[in-house]
Amino acid sequence: MFMGSELVGLEDIKARVRDAVDEQRARLREISGFLYENPELGSEELKAVELLISELGRHSFKVERDILGMPTAFCATFRGKGSGLRVAVIAEYDALPGVGHGCGHNLIAASAIGAGVAASKVMDNLDGEVLVVGTPAEEGHGPSGGAKVIMAERGFWDDINAAIMLHPSSSWGVGSRSLGISMVKMEFEGQTSHAAVNPQEGINALNAATLAFMATHMLRQEARRDANLVIHGIISEGGLATNVIPDRAVCDFGVRSSDDAYLDEMVDKVARCAEGAALAMGAKVKVTKKKLYSGKNINEPLVEVLWNNYHSQGVEMKPWEESINGMPMASTDFGDVSQKIPAAGSYISIAEPGTPGHSKQMADATMTERGQEAMIIGTKALAMTLVELLAEPEKLRKAKEFFDTH
Ligand SMILES: [Zn+2]
Ligand SMILES: [Zn+2]
């Protein structure tokens, strides 16, 4: 509850955190620039974490590192004047092979630090806690891959009341959906033989894999059109020599949908394609299914608060009502956070529309004037949202109510 004597209302508190973000402009450029110059793959983000936690420590956050046995995960907390609700801003800082910060996670890290630190400057007026949570390996690399899922499975999010974040993009938006994703691996086993001399003695594992591919393609005909089904796959192993009938072939599929229950159903059907193909060819098959990320559970009240804090800065963006009904494109482990607690994500426009994600161009865009300015606007929106939720806890109650009923 807001009880301050110096700051008299939410608008004053918001103005103060916006100033506190402006005061950090040079530092946030340095932080995002250091990560840009020193890209580290997921689970290996040691330099990034060292920099981020030292910055939070310098601003009197209580920092826990190595959380849940993940060396590059951290949780930094700043307590207000009394006990109350706990709101989190999420940092990502992993890079991609070949294209460095081609997903712009250097800006996600800087914005989370900037928003957390700015919010901390008004916490002597507010009850509750602000958290900056460091989540490694969003791109899925290494043992901490998809850390937010590991954290969700281990109950990390359960005593946090809301989580927010931003992600660089080529357009602005708050509340867009994401797709759940599962992987299906098919390992076919057959029998080698000379492809010309005695093919009758062979069992062609590659033919079984090819048939499984065809059957999977045919599933699309019956796909539920409202569930945004995407199936994409490769043949990862398909034989060693043309004159040897292959006894081993492997397919890897990604299956995505905006409906998590339907996703499980389709994964079973894709697995059935492998079994049918193996049966037809007389091969054996081992199918391994693995759920990666859940789709986002959209929390409308929280999305509205975050959207308003962009809109009030003059950002021209789609109404949030349009975003939450838009086509979900990508998948993120933030989806798993949103399945546990009220959560809202936002996109900041750092490059011209059409700039490919996961590219060197996107990495370079993070350090342009436009990219940096977008990061500052996003950081202000995140900071204002953190303090708004603590100053007016009924908004968080509404978010929780919506979460419980949707
Ligand atoms: Zn990415
Ligand atoms: Zn990303």
Describe this structure in words.
40% of the residues lie in helices and 20% in strands. The protein is α/β, with parallel strands linked by helices and 406 residues long. The protein folds into 2 domains: 280 residues, Aminopeptidase (3-Layer(aba) Sandwich); 113 residues, 2-Layer Sandwich (Alpha-Beta Plaits). Strands 1-2-4-3-5-11-6 form a 7-stranded mixed beta sheet. Strands 8-9-7-10 form a 4-stranded antiparallel beta sheet. The protein is elongated and about 85 Å long. One zinc ion binds next to loops.
Task: Give the helix/strand layout.
Layout: H1 10-22, H2 25-37, H3 46-58, E1 62-65, E2 74-79, E3 82-91, H4 105-120, E4 127-134, H5 147-153, E5 162-169, E6 173-174, E7 180-189, H6 205-219, E8 230-237, E9 248-257, H7 260-281, E10 284-293, H8 300-311, H9 320-323, H10 334-338, E11 343-349, H11 360-365, H12 369-391, H13 393-405
Parallel strand pairs: 3-4, 3-5, 5-11
Antiparallel strand pairs: 1-2, 2-4, 6-11, 7-9, 7-10, 8-9
Helix pairs in contact: 1-4, 1-12, 2-4, 4-12, 6-7, 8-12, 8-13, 12-13
The structure holds zinc ion (2 copies).
